[in-house]
Model the fold of this input.
Amino acid sequence: MHIKSLRLFFGLPLPHRQAAAIDVWRNGLALDGRLVARHNLHLTLAFLGSQPVERLGELQRLAGQVRGQGFELRLDRLEVSRHGLVSLGTSQPPEALLQLAGELNDTLRAAGYSLEERTFWPHLTLARQCRKHPAPGSPPDFAWTAERFVLFHSTSDEQGTVYHPLFHWPLAVPRP
Done:
């Protein structure tokens, strides 16, 4: 079978230790929706949707032009949307995160990619299609240093969805 297109997005991966801690904390919320698998937890920077396989080289080149800085990301807010989306957010988005997402989106748009027009909303999706509010528990407080961003390929089958990292780019380590 020849694959002609891939469902793609750029995002920040979580360190395994943070993903495990978030998963344990999330389990205490007794969510009734579709949980995002622990190995899929990430923060999306730019969603590309279905793209021809032939564009992978161009996407690599474009992402390589982005010069982001590393930063500490603290997720300290539980957010619940009226559409059943439960996520972790940040009360103080790091300026380096906003600049990274802005530069990446600007670079992609300038190259002709069609992206969502809404304002960047830094969040980590925990579950979708929740019908009831999460059970109260300890407030979230998760932090890690973002050192790279990744181009992910999303696949789905009867076992569920998996986000496969295709390429990654380092973020410059800030000097003290």
About this structure: The radius of gyration is 16 Å. The chain has a mean pLDDT of 93. The beta strands are 5-13, 34-35, 42-52, 71-75, 77-80, 86-89, 123-128, 142-146, 148-157, 160-170. The first strand starts at residue 5 and ends at 13.
